[in-house]
Amino acid sequence: MNELRDKNGLTEEEFLAAYRPGDYVKPSVAVDMVIFSAIERKEKNYRKLPEKELRVLLIRRGGHPCLGCWALPGGFVEPDETTEQAAVRELKEETNVENIYLEQLYTFSDPKRDPRTWVMSCSYLALIDSEKVNVAAGDDASNAAWFTVNLETVSQNLTKQQDGFCKTTEYMLTLSYDNIKLTAKIRHELIRSDKGAVNNYDIIENNGIAFDHARIISYAVERLRGKVQYTDIALNLVPEYFTLTELQQVYEIILGKKLIKAPFRRKYGILAEPTDKQTSYAGHRPSQLFRKKWLTE
User: Fold this and answer.
1) Exposure pattern of 241-267 as b/e (b: 16+ CB <10 Å)?
2) Is 247 left (phi over 0), alpha (psi -120 to 50) or beta?
3) Where are the beta strands (DSSP E) in the chain?
4) Considering Cα of 6, then 12, then 14, then 18, what sign does the dihedral take?
5) How many angstroms separate the Cα of 158 from the Cα of each of 58, 169, 190?
């Protein structure tokens, strides 16, 4: 059988023997982890039920670039692993947790997003129970902390185009931990037409957040807000046993708004099944505990 030859008369074996990867500019590839958890706020009044906050794990950079700024945990992909394998490895190294909810978010490939060189970031979203996590800063970081997340809509504008529309939303991202407050203003431009949809995220202002990680966090919050309304993804943020009030709190901190109890339980009650266990909060009447009932079962 005659071997296939290209326009230069080369077989595949001959082409590969002469191929020089160094002739092409190649980016470095990193994974950045947006690790969310629902953490109870400490209450001074023991009679008041603790409320939850949506928090994200950040690492304070101990070296250049962005020395002293707060960044998402992550690292470079090794030559012998996929981006998903790198994400699982980084998650294990940073939190000592395995087998949790993990999904790929988006690949951020702006050539100027890292001052060192062209670094493409394949970002991942992880949801974990913070009570099971042992967080420790890595070799290139000086501290690690859970920051409260608040993504607020500042303005919104919708303009019609010839074959679709352009929706522009400006957000204010605020990340808080003790006396530390990090902020960034993000513009999200959604262009939809007959040819499909294009999402552009731009950082308008930034205060203390490394690289373009404010953009990645904002993208992750939007993804979480969208999926929580039609999937059972929120169950990854509650413990094994929980009250319906705790489940509602998780939805409220993700969506950024209060929900009415009766409609919430009618819509999302199918996610939980009752157990014979009860809470034992000091100063409060016992409440029935539920466990997860996955829609995929």
Assistant:
1) ebbbebbbbbbbbbeeeeeeeeebbee
2) alpha
3) 28-40, 52-61, 70-71, 74-76, 101-108, 119-127, 141-161, 164-177, 180-193, 196-207, 241-242, 272-278, 288-292
4) positive
5) 33, 9, 9
The C-alpha atoms of residue 97 and residue 81 are separated, in whole angstroms, by 19
The pLDDT tens digits of the residues spanning 66-107 come to 999 999 999 999 999 999 999 999 888 877 777 889 999 999
| Prediction pTM value | 0.89
Q: What is the DSSP letter of 98?
A: -
Report residue 146 as tokens: 């859970």
Structural tokens at position 285: 């009447």
How does residue 295 score in pLDDT terms, banded at 50, 70 and 90?
A: low
Instruction: Judge residue 35's burial from the number of C-beta atoms within 10 Å of its C-beta, 0-12 exposed, 13-18 middle, 19 or more buried.
Output: buried
